[in-house]
Amino acid sequence: MKVLIIEDNEDLREISKLELEKEKILVEMASNYKEAIEKIELYEYDCILLDIMLPDGDGLSILRCLKEIHKSEGVIIISAKDSLEDKIEGLELGADDYLPKPFHFAELIARIKSVVRRKMGDGEVFFSFGDLKVNNSSFKVFVEDKELILSRKEYDILFYFINRANRLIDKTTLAEGVWGDYIDQVDNYDFIYAQIKNIRKKLKDAGSKVEIKSIYGFGYKLIFNEDIDEK
Question: Does domain 126-224 have CATH number 3.40.190.10?
């Protein structure tokens, strides 16, 4: 799961990042309106934590921007400005939830997970594709009823694919979605090839008919290949 925190208070940004990372959430941050718009236009997120009051703009304008560029990220408004008018306008502009400051991080994390579940899986904890079933609360993957043992990064990659099954995913998009926005600073993507090779072997050994297929010159696609022979 990848979350963008848009917040001008440095202390709150940093402690929010630490608390979310304890839940194995990948976190990116923006401290002002300009930086937030740049990140939103360039990258994809599962959820955005949005402060309404920013030094060079306002959060409601960011919501309008998301709508204009047809982005579907979940958005939770987090603001000390707890007026009914702002709350209504934010929800009408597409925000999924509203949490006033101060807040407990346990509640924030619960709301993030709820928003992401609604966006990705119609409110269900379990996600399924082919013979795979994923519990995104416990970070476990099952082939039929047998657990597939994955490293955390292997899980992140497979979960990213499952939520975009049968869609062509290029290497750069995959890297940004799983490793974060600063992945564009690396020289090559050899580490992705190694992780995908491991996932393929584990799926095959478990007898799964789900396959990460290479599309030469483009990237990868997760498919359910019913023609794969069972073990």
Answer: no
In whole angstroms, how far apart are CA 83 and each of 7, 75, 160, 182, 184?
18, 18, 37, 36, 40
- Extract long-range pairs of 140-147: CB within 8 Å, 24+ residues apart: 143/203, 143/206, 143/207, 143/208, 143/210, 146/206
- What is the rounded CA–CA span in Å between residue 161 and residue 190? 18
Q: Where are the domains of the chain?
A: 2-121, 126-224
Cα–Cα separations (whole angstroms), residue 74 to 1, 14, 68, 118, 216: 12, 21, 15, 9, 32
CATH class of 2-121: alpha beta
Looking only at the bridges linking them, the beta strands covering 132-135 and 126-129 are: antiparallel
pLDDT tens-digit profile of 149-201?
999 889 989 988 988 889 999 888 888 777 776 566 555 677 888 899 999 99
- Write out the H or E segment, with its range, that includes residue 112: helix 105-121
Positive or negative, the CA dihedral 27, 33, 38, 40 is positive
Cβ neighbours for 133, distance < 8 A, ≥ 6 positions apart: 126, 127, 141, 142
- The DSSP output letter for 80 is S
Q: What per-residue confidence (pLDDT) applies to 178?
A: 78
Closest CA to 74 of 33, 118, 108: 118
| pLDDT band, residue 24 (cuts 50/70/90) | confident
CA 186 to chain centre: 21
Report pLDDT digits (tens) over 42-93. 888 989 999 988 999 888 999 999 989 888 889 999 987 666 777 788 888 8
